[in-house]
Amino acid sequence: MTLENDYNLKKLNTFGIEARCKTFFEYSTDEELFDFIRLHKNDSDFKFFVLGGGSNVLFTKDFDGTIIHPATKGRKIVYETADNIFVEAQAGEIWDEFVEWCIENKAYGLENLSYIPGTVGASAVQNIGAYGAEARQFIHRVKFLHLDSGDIQYMSNEACCFGYRESIFKHLLKGKAIILSVVYKLSKHPSINRSYADVEKYLTDNKITNPSPADIRSAIIDIRRKKLPEVSETGSAGSFFKNPVVDAETFKALQGKFPEIKYFTAGANFKLAAGWLIDQCGLKGFQHKGAAVHKNQALILINAGNATGNDVVELSKIVQDKVFEKFGVKLEPEAIII
Ligand SMILES: Cc1cc2nc3c(=O)[nH]c(=O)nc-3n(C[C@H](O)[C@H](O)[C@H](O)COP(=O)(O)OP(=O)(O)OC[C@H]3O[C@@H](n4cnc5c(N)ncnc54)[C@H](O)[C@@H]3O)c2cc1C
To answer: What class has domain 2-70?
Structure first.
């Protein structure tokens, strides 16, 4: 357990932004968390934020409260049926280490979500997704501490209200729940998801005709390493904006004007590729103060060197304005701005 005042958060956010918090509390067992919360639950001015790996947050100022950082570790198989393996991981587990462990233990499904930075706890908050898969397809149950009642509660997949990078933990339970662990329902039978063009191309180029789940994991890691900035080298929060979803009428009008527009279908709606929209505005590599649009991936805003959180926010506004001017589409940040 660590409890420190005036703590530097630079190493705890992948943007690498300088920010401090009034108090920093890191815990390695759930009991340490329960004791801490019990102690502070009646403080009327107790303000906190749960920070996992800090890979989807942007600090624009010092945090005038307590940063609660789960460092709980542990993963285990909790239940098996003829076809499925239910695995539980503690919130502080590193997501990608968990994915690797699942594949090693012949529990399949998470391969396409390999190499996403962050923790297991946040995977349920964010409903992380990549390469044709989303966490919600596999989350069975989320265990959390409900701060109003002080009880440990369990939330089924359906009750989590998952959406595109959305869950109940970002809405109804925002600031009220600390996720303790997540149970994933995985398959004993490999089911290869090569639906994404990049994955299919990789397999073809590398002459992998009958890929195993481990092959898919290696392919995804390779693709991501080539495409995305490594957090150890370039500060970012991955995709800064969500891909905007528009209705069929808006989409038809846009496609009429921009026949090359990149999109995915999303039920009756259309999800536009935000990176393509930004790229069409000529913004790849564009720099504003210490922040820049990544030179290869327009959807990623980076810390180009000593950026402040406000540099990134200002850049994001420039990007939003340009995209709106050209396409009439509003980009919403995916990153959580604090
Ligand atoms: C290079 C890069 C690539 C990325 N690629 C992808 C991608 O392909 N797909 C994708 O979906 N995301 C991607 N991301 C975003 C990020 O990895 C995910 O959002 C990840 O789930 C964040 O995990 P974290 O532990 O860092 O959460 P944080 O950034 O620390 O927190 C995110 C949110 O979760 C909350 N939270 C965290 N832990 C808990 C908990 N235990 N209880 C309650 N609330 C909690 C926080 O309060 C915050 O609201 C990428 C980021 C980077 C930097």
So the answer is: alpha beta
